[in-house]
Amino acid sequence: MSSTTPDTFKGWVANNATSPLTFTTFHPKPFTETDIEVAISHCGICGTDIHTLRSGWGPADYPCVVGHEIIGTVTRIGSEVPTLASSPASREIRIGDRVGIGAQSMSCLKADCSECADGQENYCPRLTGTYNSRYADKSKAYGGFAMRWRGPAHFAFKIPGSLPSAEAAPLLCGGVTVFAPLRKYGAGPGKSVGIVGIGGLGHLGILFARALGCDRVVGISRTSSKRKDAIEGLGADAFIATDEEKKWGRMHSRSLDLIICTVDAPDMPLSQYLRLLKVDGTFVQVGAPEKPLPQLTAFSLIQKGVKVTGSNIGSPEDIRLMLQLAAEKRVLPWIQKRPMEDVNAALADMDAGKARYRYVLVNETEKQAKL
Ligand SMILES: NC(=O)c1ccc[n+]([C@@H]2O[C@H](COP(=O)([O-])OP(=O)(O)OC[C@H]3O[C@@H](n4cnc5c(N)ncnc54)[C@H](OP(=O)(O)O)[C@@H]3O)[C@@H](O)[C@H]2O)c1
Ligand SMILES: [Zn+2]
Ligand SMILES: [Zn+2]
C-alpha cells in the first residue's frame, strides 16, 4: 500500500527571525502507519506564518517550515489508515486523492482526554501545530512551504471536487478559524454579525456569515479603502471605517449579536467594538496580536452583560462542515496566486497588508515531479 519516499524533503526553510527563507532539505517526522504523505500543490500564507517567522509570539523552534493552508495529492498511505480508529472519515483517503491540511497536525487522541473524546481536538492540551511544534516522539512538525508534507491522516481532509485547489487552500486555516466561532455562537437567520479586520480571515468571515444566512453582516475596517470590496464584492450589508467615521461606537451601538475580531495588532479600539454589541452579545477574538490587548473598564462588560471570548482554529468536524458549506454555497476566498519560488516577496507583501485578500503559493508541477 505505501511506497517509500526519501526521508529528506525539500522546502523553504527559516533558520532565524530575520534572514529570508532558503530552499533546502529538511527531515520530516518518522513515517508511521497512521500517516500519509502529500505532494503539495498549493499553500496559503496566513498571518500566523508571519508572527512565527519573526518569533513575534516568542522564540520560534528554528529551523522552521511554515505554511498551514496546504493542498496536495496523496502519494503514500500508512497501512493502518484504512482502519483508523480515531477518524472514520480519514479511512477513506486513497492514493491520488486531493486533501487539505490546516493549522493542526496532531492531538493526543486519547480516550481519557476530554477534549479529544469530545471532538474538540483543537483544544487538546497536547495539540501539535502543523509547524513550530513537536509530535509526541519529539520530532518536529514541518508545514506547507515545501514540496511534500508528511503527517497523521487524522488531520488530513478530502477536498470536495467542486472546490478549486488554490481557492480551497485558505479555507483550511483562515476559513475554519472564522467558521468555527460563527457556528458555535449561532450565526444565521435572525442574527446581525460584525467582522472586524478585512484581511485573509476577515474577508472569509464576511463570506461565511453570508453563507450561513445571517440577517445582517457588517464589515469593520480601519479605513474606507475596502468598503467597495466588502459591500459589492463580498456581500456585506454595511461597513464601518473606524479611523474615519466620527463617534462610530455611539452611532452603531447595540446593533450586533456577534463580533468576530481578526485584528492582529494590539492597538485596536476594543471598548468601542464592544459598544457595537447588543445586550448579551458575544465578542470573539481570533486575531492574535504580539502584545496584550487594550485595557477595558468593567463597565464595558457590565452595562450590557456582553461576553468576551476567543477561538482556536476549528475541530476536524468544523473543517468538514466548513468545506461542505463552501462547496454548496460557493464560498470562494479572494486569492492571488504566487509561485512558491517567490515566497520571500509574497511574505513581505503580506506583511505590508497588500494581499487582497490571501496569497496562495503554487508549486510548479514539473519541479514537484522531480522532488
Ligand atoms: N485564532 C486562531 O485560531 C487563528 C487562526 C489563524 C490566524 N490567526 C491570527 O489572526 C490574525 C489575522 O490573520 P490574517 O491571516 O487574517 O491576517 P491579515 O490578512 O493580515 O488580516 C489582519 C487584518 O487586521 C486588521 N488590522 C491590522 N492592524 C490593525 C490595527 N492596528 N487596528 C485594527 N485593525 C488592524 C487589518 O484589517 P483592515 O485593513 O480591514 O483594518 C488586516 O487586514 C493573525 O494574528 C493570525 O495569527 C488566528
Ligand atoms: Zn493560519
Ligand atoms: Zn487530547
Automatic annotation (TrEMBL):
E.C. number(s) listed in UniProt: 1.1.1.2
Domain (Enoyl reductase (ER)): residue spans on this chain: 16-361
Cofactor: Zn(2+)
InterPro entries tied to this protein: ADH-like_C (IPR013149), ADH-like_N (IPR013154), ADH_Zn_CS (IPR002328), CAD-like (IPR047109), ER (IPR020843), GroES-like_sf (IPR011032), NAD(P)-bd_dom_sf (IPR036291)
Coiled-coil region(s): none
The protein's enzyme class: oxidoreductase
Keywords attached to this entry: Metal-binding, NADP, Oxidoreductase, Phosphoprotein, Zinc
Any one of the GO BP annotations: alcohol metabolic process
Family membership noted in the UniProt record: Belongs to the zinc-containing alcohol dehydrogenase family.
Assembly and oligomerization: Homodimer.
Record's protein name: alcohol dehydrogenase (NADP(+))
Organism of derivation: Aspergillus oryzae (Yellow koji mold)
Lineage of producing organism: Eukaryota, Fungi, Dikarya, Ascomycota, Pezizomycotina
